[in-house]
Amino acid sequence: MKRLKLRLLMLSALLTLASPMAAFAESTFQGALPNIHGKSLTTPVGWGAAYGTVFVGAGGTIPAPYSNDSDAAMGFGVGIGNPRDYLGLEASIMSLDLSDWERYSLNLKLHRYLGHGNSIAVGVENILIGDSSNNRTDSDESYYIVYSQGVQDRHVIDDEMNRTKLHYSIGIGNGRFRDKSPLDVDNGKGKHGTAVFGNVSYELFDEFNAIVDWNGVNLNAGVSKTFLLGSQSALVASMGAADLTGYSGDGVRFIWGVGAGIMF
């Protein structure tokens, strides 16, 4: 299935958005913390789930690249460890095909909070743990390292909440961050992207984040909002437009994601 890479791209971003509970445990850190809303659409961030967090999410695109059909994916994950004092580990399992539920992959992210809104992570996406068709298509493992910063300038800090409104991430990776899909190659888009990826998010009206990200093969933009359901749980919703340039894909697409998490 040549759209498999997109499913992994969308869900990996969603699972990042669906793990805001780390913020609850970081309330005693020095410096302003990142805000609670999603900070990326299709790229990893340095922050991650930890402290006994469980999350679930789903995401999709309308339409899929080089297709008139929509595409979607879903998965669940956990976050353990203490990234403030030691390390946090975020692990998620996703279904690669919602039509048969027989193909799954594993994502792992090891992250460390550095204080003052800074965090760094290394990770791998798409470790296949079940593939009844024995067909890897175009989705090999993607390894990456990413650094994220919640900007500490007083002009972008909410003093009452001690949270910054402006965030950015910069990283480098292989796999989906570097390699374009076979359909891109067939359509003359080239074989490789930049390998470097990044994102910028800013909180608007004290309500949601506006996001722009570059995933190594194209530019995307959208919004994300987190709804707190109590002191230990939250719901995250995001939407946006993908493939805003002609560097890959066959046109602009609508993308969406929802996720929920709880910290025990």
Task: Please give the radius of gyration in angstroms.
Answer: 17 Å
Strand order of the largest sheet: 2-3-4-5-6-7-10-11-12-13-14-15
Output the CATH topology. Answer: Porin
CATH architecture: Beta Barrel
SS element count, helices: 3
Amino-to-carboxy terminus distance? 37 Å
Largest sheet: 12 strands, antiparallel, barrel
Task: Report on the architecture of this protein.
The chain has 3 helices and 15 strands. It has 264 residues and is mostly beta strands. The chain has a single domain (4-263), classed as Porin, CATH 2.40.160. The strands form 2 sheets. Strands 2-3-4-5-6-7-10-11-12-13-14-15 form a 12-stranded antiparallel beta barrel. It has a 3-stranded mixed β-sheet with strand order 1-9-8, with no helix packed on it. It is globular and about 50 Å long. The protein starts with a helix and ends with a strand. Keywords: Signal. Residues 1-25 form the signal peptide.
Quick recap of the structure?
The chain has helices spanning 4-17, 22-25, 182-186; strands spanning 33-34, 53-62, 71-81, 88-95, 103-115, 118-131, 142-150, 157-158, 163-164, 166-173, 196-204, 208-214, 219-228, 233-242, 253-263. With 264 residues, the protein is mostly beta strands. Keywords: Signal.
Record the SSE blueprint:
Layout: H1 4-17, H2 22-25, E1 33-34, E2 53-62, E3 71-81, E4 88-95, E5 103-115, E6 118-131, E7 142-150, E8 157-158, E9 163-164, E10 166-173, H3 182-186, E11 196-204, E12 208-214, E13 219-228, E14 233-242, E15 253-263
Parallel strand pairs: 1-9
Antiparallel strand pairs: 2-3, 2-15, 3-4, 4-5, 5-6, 6-7, 7-10, 8-9, 10-11, 11-12, 12-13, 13-14, 14-15
